[in-house]
């Protein structure tokens, strides 16, 4: 009687990326953004998931932007997750289009090594929240606050200067890119006294600045001259939209002599580095300057799941069930 033999089943070799040294895998993941890693890369294989958790160097620089696909509240949760994975090694974070008071404080409590902070169009974060957070960033060298619908204050500038003695680059802009057409705009009717006080606070508390951007400020020659005198290392100055300056020829001449990279009030916005929301906005009728009010509560908390940014989450937003938010029980269906 012929003997029967069981068929030989050949095992499928693992994909080549699973056998890469973890340092190389970490270098690959570092090229991706935080959202791509948390939503996609960690589901490629258990190795990538493990490396993303065990190598905080992947998370030293976090870039996150609202793509109008994910709910802002989910982006906030993912941002916190990325900060946790950095294990205190975060040095640079760039947030565009979302954020809350609690989120910026969460970052500050876990990121004492931070050197660069950029917030663009983050309407849920007030300037007061930023100032409170920055007291935990003694190594901060770059601060960029773009299109935040809130009031910048003298006390806040003073606190930032005291808390961040290494600050070299500072940027403020309170207008959306889509509206930055200065050709048909006249001079402001409102006085620039408050903006001059802010400029004087910059001069008195941030003498180490090399770069300063004040797009749309109402400062006058008084404030500008204070900056030129108080910031002797300044080599780059952006005054686009600052139509109250250069009423005195000597101040303009001083700028031209001192500043290597000078952008004048009516220069084009080409090359503006910070992204903006180009969608229609009924609240976009305010003038330039740092004096308009915000439609937020006293704590800048807008993390309610149904009213964040006034958006309707049943129309156009995607909140996938399989988004990976790290915990101790993450499991793969196929492993």
TrEMBL record:
Q: Name one GO molecular function term.
A: SCF ubiquitin ligase complex binding
Stretches assigned to the F-box domain: 14-62
> Coiled-coil annotation: which residues?
none
Cite the InterPro entries for this sequence.
F-box_dom, LRR_dom_sf
Protein's UniProt name = F-box domain-containing protein
Species of origin reads Erythranthe guttata (Yellow monkey flower)
Phylogenetic lineage: Eukaryota, Viridiplantae, Streptophyta, Embryophyta, Tracheophyta
């Amino acid at each position: 009687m012929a003997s029967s033999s069981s068929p030989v089943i050949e095992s499928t070799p693992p994909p080549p990326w699973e056998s890469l040294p973890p340092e190389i895998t970490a270098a690959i993941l570092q090229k991706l953004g935080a959202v791509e890693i948390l939503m996609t890369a960690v589901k490629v294989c258990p190795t990538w998931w493990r490396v993303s958790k065990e190598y905080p160097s992947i998370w030293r620089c976090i870039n996150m932007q609202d793509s109008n696909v994910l709910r802002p509240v989910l982006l906030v949760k993912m941002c916190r997750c990325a900060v946790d994975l950095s294990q205190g090694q975060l040095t640079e974070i760039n947030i565009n289009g979302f954020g809350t008071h609690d989120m910026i404080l969460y970052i500050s409590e876990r990121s004492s090594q931070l050197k660069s902070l950029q917030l663009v169009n983050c309407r849920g974060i007030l300037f007061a929240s930023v100032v409170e957070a920055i007291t935990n960033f003694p190594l901060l060298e770059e601060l960029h606050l773009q299109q935040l619908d809130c009031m910048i204050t003298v006390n806040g500038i003073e606190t930032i200067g005291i808390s961040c003695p290494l600050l070299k680059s500072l940027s403020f802009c309170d207008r959306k890119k889509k509206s930055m057409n200065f050709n048909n705009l006249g001079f402001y009717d409102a006085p620039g006294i408050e903006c001059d006080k802010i400029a004087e606070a910059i001069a008195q508390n941030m003498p180490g600045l090399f770069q300063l951007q004040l797009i749309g400020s109402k400062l006058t020659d008084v404030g500008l001259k204070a900056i030129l005198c108080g910031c002797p290392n300044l080599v780059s100055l952006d005054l686009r939209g600052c139509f109250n300056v250069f009423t005195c020829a000597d101040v303009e001449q001083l700028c031209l002599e001192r500043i290597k990279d000078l952008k004048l009030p009516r220069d084009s916005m080409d090359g503006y580095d910070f992204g903006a929301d180009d969608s229609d906005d009924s609240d976009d009728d305010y003038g330039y300057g740092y004096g308009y009010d915000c439609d937020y509560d006293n704590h800048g908390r807008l993390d309610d799941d149904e009213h964040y940014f006034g958006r309707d989450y049943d129309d156009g937003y995607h909140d996938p069930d399989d988004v990976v938010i790290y915990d101790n029980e993450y499991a793969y269906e196929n492993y």
